[in-house]
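Progress against Task 2.4 (sequence-to-structure conversion) is shown through the following example record, which the project officer requested during the mid-term review.
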Amino acid sequence: MRTLDQERAAFAWQRLREGRTANYTNLAKSLPALVMTSGLMQTLAFLQGKAGNRGRSEHKELLEDILKWLADSRVAVLDGAETSFDGAMNRFTNMTPLEYQRATEETLSFLRWVRYLAGTFSHSSEQ
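Structure tokens generated for the chain above:
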């Protein structure tokens, strides 16, 4: 049986193998500081605002990856219906402080694995 940290690493590895760009990994590397200074909901709102309606972008991909991890059954901070930005924000605003702290910690732990593993990929295209 794998530990939760191993599961986080596997999830981050899978996401990076799907062809995330160098812009994605650079954004993921800088995001923990934003989470720590501004908060989780504010950081997710920043990603949503930057993603806009531009189709695929590193902001949109990272937002989706964070929400998918938080909704993963191994973590269960969000449920499957809350993987959209609106659904997640609704859930976050109704969480207890302890639940919100756990969501923040899980997000930071996921981003840490993205940062650790990002250097193992060569990014052939910048978007």
